[in-house]
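Allow me, if you will, to draw on your knowledge of protein folds for a short while. I am sending you one protein, given as its amino acid sequence and as whole-number tokens for its backbone shapes. Kindly check, if you would, that the fold set down in the tokens agrees with what the sequence suggests. The record follows directly beneath this note:
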Amino acid sequence: MALKISEQSGGSDFEQLAKGQYNATCYRVIDIGTHNETFEGETSKKHSVLLQWELEKKMADDRPYSVTAQYNLSLHEKAKLRQHLTSWRQKQFTDEELAGFDLTNVLGLTCKLDIGHTANGNPKVLNIYAPDGGVKKGATVND
């Protein structure tokens, strides 16, 4: 498999997503493995995952917006993934779930994403909430 790149590659002509809250459905969970991460001068190995959502909001060409968030694969009480999942599920994790939660259970589930922007203007998931009417199985354009 070839992965070609040129000096014209890397430009972005995607429509920008405004800050706000959007109804979405999780359509992808990607295990991106472990990497070294340095925090306050200490380096440690972190196992990370990406969650990707398709928004109900469409771009001008009628394609849905897609938003991705990277998380450390951790259910530690201070972990952002645990905080977001707790808010989304509207309940705390049980001891049994903390011993082994299957993250693929969120695939196909609806939510409300609170979107902000990074310093370079890319969308950033600030929080995840249960949508009005509760979490349900949602339909997506992307498989």
Observations:
- Residues 80-89 form the longest helix (10 residues).
- The chain has one domain: 20-129.
- The chain has a mean pLDDT of 91.
- DSSP finds two helices and five strands in the chain.
